[in-house]
Amino acid sequence: MRKLVLLALVGLGAQLVDGSLGMAYGVTSTTLLLAIGTNPAAASATVHLAEIGTTLASGASHWKFGNVDWKVVTRIGIPGAIGAFAGATFLSNLDTSVAAPVMSLILLALGVYVLARFTVKGIRRDRLGQPLRRRFLAPLGLVAGFVDATGGGGWGPVGTPAILASGRLEPRKVIGSIDTSEFLVSVAASAGFLLALGSAGIDTAWVVALLVGGLIAAPIAAWLVRHIPPRVLGSAVGGVIVLTNSRTLLRSDWIDASDSTRTLVYLVLAAVWAGAVAWSVRAYRGELALERELADLEAELATDDARKGAAEPA
């Protein structure tokens, strides 16, 4: 019972992050399932089955708050579903001893990307309103869907930063569209896993626990997307993913590091993570201060113009 409550809380927290950042539900949830010894393919299948419900609820919530661009959803979601089905089939046929470190390596790379992306880079705004073309979205969806199924997460970490970096869609609509299109990816990945694995290794109670937590968080996250600073949250989540999957890799047969080596690596990673979060907080405060200064300057200019207009003779 305690494990189910924990999984529900993980589902809730992961969906809060995913609905606010447009990423990290699958990466966060799969990382936890791997940490407690779940078979890699079964872990990814469990998460994707839960995501069918959470992404549907999240998409409906984002649609309600006006955060969805339906052209983007269809242009990236359908290729994403194809890639996810292929990825699920590929992972299901990998030997477990190989699949675990492979998945952790993918998750680690995604974690590093999330951490670096939100710590170092801001969001471009000079291209807002320009159309996102199919020739960009279709390959992106195919790759993101494949990575999502094989890594137990990756749709958001691959898709969201790529569209944000284009600067052609406002952040809230990027997040809403990625979350909504993920429903197609989750359905396709789940179908691939069920066809390849059947129900072997998939605990229905775990699926339900993750789903319940995610359903509770989905509408809250859709509302919070306008209020939580993505830069800070992205740095925090990226650090968790990097630390957890580094632990899995250091204990794997590939590396089998000694206790002292593992401790040293954990301390270094923790220090880097703390520094990244502190940097993100400082950068976010700087951005807020700059916005206030610009707003004050605009207000002063408007006041001066009004005074000049009033002083001129009729």
TrEMBL record:
Topology within the bilayer: Multi-pass membrane protein
Quote the subcellular location field of this record: Cell membrane; Membrane
Quick one: signal sequence residues? Answer: none
Give the primary localization class: membrane
InterPro entries assigned: TM_pro_TauE-like, TSUP/Inactive_protease-like
Give one Pfam hit by family name.
TauE
- Keyword DNA-binding applies: no
Q: Which residues cross the membrane?
A: 98-116, 175-197, 204-225, 264-284
- Give the family from UniProt: Belongs to the 4-toluene sulfonate uptake permease (TSUP) (TC 2.A.102) family.
Its recorded name reads: Probable membrane transporter protein
The organism named in the record is Ornithinibacter aureus
